[in-house]
Amino acid sequence: MRALALATLLLAPAAAAAQDPANDLLRDLGLAPAAQLVTVQALRRADGLVVVTLTPQGAVKLVADPGVSVVPVDQAGLPVADPVAMLDRAKEYFPLPPSLVVHPGTAAALKVEYAYCVVAKQCLFGDVTVAIPPPA
Questions:
Q1: CA dist list (Å): 74 to 88, 104, 109
Q2: Domain definitions of the chain by residue range
Q3: List of long-range contacts for 86-90, beta carbons under 8 Å, 24+ apart
Q4: CB 49 within 8 A of CB 31
Q5: Contact (CB, 8 A) for 23 and 30
Q6: What is the pLDDT of residue 35?
Q7: Do the Cβ atoms of 100 and 78 come closer than 8 Å?
Q8: How would you class 41 by CB atoms within 10 Å of its CB: exposed for 0-12, middle for 13-18, buried for 19 or more?
Q9: Which CATH architecture has domain 6-131?
């Protein structure tokens, strides 16, 4: 099996994270900045599709409803293909890190949106734009 390309990006650059009000809230709760709470990985498969996986760190949980969405976007951040979403209204949180398979088409990047809880009922929305990995 061929090695697959892997692109891992955290939620936000350090400079932007310092100005994020969510980071102030997290700091007040004694928690790490948002960029350290959820990692987003994009892995290109041999067939050209991209698998996006969100991995919460520590006690962080990803909220199953509204779930996770991935939108292929151009360089200006405008959608260029249909979004892919995963949600489960029967559960409060995803029991395992969610993975979504996306057809990137002509997209330059993927915009990933999700909700996460740092402690019970203390939830925030997150979004990150990840580069599309090169073909394997």
A1: 28, 10, 6
A2: 6-131
A3: 88/64, 89/64, 89/65, 90/64
A4: no
A5: no
A6: 67
A7: no
A8: middle
A9: Sandwich (2.60)
Structure tokens at 14: 């350090």
Q: Which residues contact 13 (CB under 8 A, 6 or more apart)?
A: none
Tokens 């892995």 belong to which residue?
43
Record the pTM.
0.78
- Write the single-letter amino acid at 90: A
Q: Show pLDDT as tens, one digit a residue, over the chain (136 residues).
A: 333 333 333 333 334 444 677 677 767 767 676 668 899 999 999 999 999 999 999 889 999 999 999 999 999 999 999 999 999 999 999 999 999 999 999 999 999 999 999 877 788 899 999 999 988 6
